[in-house]
Amino acid sequence: MLYWLSLLKENWHALNVFQYLTFRTGGALITAFLIVLLGGPRFIRWLKSKQGEGQPIRDDGPASHLAKKGTPTMGGLLIVVAGVLATLLWANPVNAYVWVILAVFVGFGAIGFVDDYLKLTKHNSAGISGKKRLGIEFGFSFAACMAMICMENGSMATTLTIPFFKDILLDLGWFYIPFVLVVIVGTANAVNLTDGLDGLVSIPVIMSTLVFAVIAYVAGRGDYAEYLQIYHVHGAGELTVLCGALIGGTLGFLWYNAHPAQVFMGDTGSLALGGALGALAVATKHEIVLAISGGIFVIEALSDIIQVGSFKLRHKRVFLMAPIHHHFEKKGWSETTVVVRFWIVSILLALFALATLKLR
Hints:
mainly alpha, two-stranded antiparallel sheet, 64% helix
């Protein structure tokens, strides 16, 4: 809403600053960060008073995790609230892309909230049934996909761009819809799987979101898009502000989620952030780049799929425990070592993903 202040720039020239994406992105980041940072202590106390024993801890997990019993979950609700408020405050409220991504963000957050609530009330790690949860997630993703196709409404609406190649474009036609559903739902659940250690998921999410903040900014500007030889998505630049809000909210949450965690993100936060990341990739036409910047999420999801598939087919496990971050814990790595090394990998992958903008 502060964007509208730029309309008064003829009377107060200083208000012209509110039309700049970089300024409003910084404002959204700081706003979301402060909401989480300042609201965190009271919110955590409230969660503790309502949840009692906190998030159920798996009995088959690493022994060190038993000490986490009593830590409240659903902390991701604070990220969702901060992200939405900061975006509405600093983004252009008439931008359709902003509303679509926010809808996915809130929608997947609501799914996660219900899942967390059921886990707490049932006092076990089973929430919404897998089929029901996937069905709802695909429903939200389908609505977002159709909205973005209608907004594009051109020859590129169902086209897939290939990183590193400026002239290779694949028009998937109607197959683009199931592809988008897999991207959004797959990303949401991959981020959810990654959220298994204190602070682990935050930096990979921040780095991937930072990559898409840059992509949204350059894809939304015709001159930059032409220079970098990427597809120009009219209106996508405003998503930079939303990315700033997501980064700020996640960074503020990391303050309380760093080891030893005072609160867990829960499905509420991980599904919301993952769904938003997937939708951002679709909106900016850089779905494949998401697999690069979010390589940690891909590895975590694949390790879980391989483990389940191997056990069903061969009755043998490939990893000591899945997802793979637990495998390294079982091998003797400390939780902090696993987290920091995964952070390092996520930073390197983000830099490589940004390189795809120039290497064409």
